[in-house]
Amino acid sequence: MENKPDDRRDNVDKIQNNITNTIENYNLAEEAIEKTDDEKDKRAIEEKNQRRLDSIDGMRSEVKDEASDKKNRYK
Q1: Is 8 helix (H, G, I), strand (E, B) or coil?
Q2: How far apart are CA 21 and CA 7, in angstroms?
């Protein structure tokens, strides 16, 4: 069985979709922080949201790389 060739044509779209979903989850979590009185839960959600922000930064960087590679036809 042969391996499929690497098809990166829609990577930018997939990554952008992941960014959008992560931002939505971040916003929902921020709403949850406002509604909870449990300090332990608040800290856990805040920590998770910080990881989300870090992930978003990484994904945005990846989008730039993929867009540049696409422009250069993946050379």
Answers
A1: coil
A2: 23
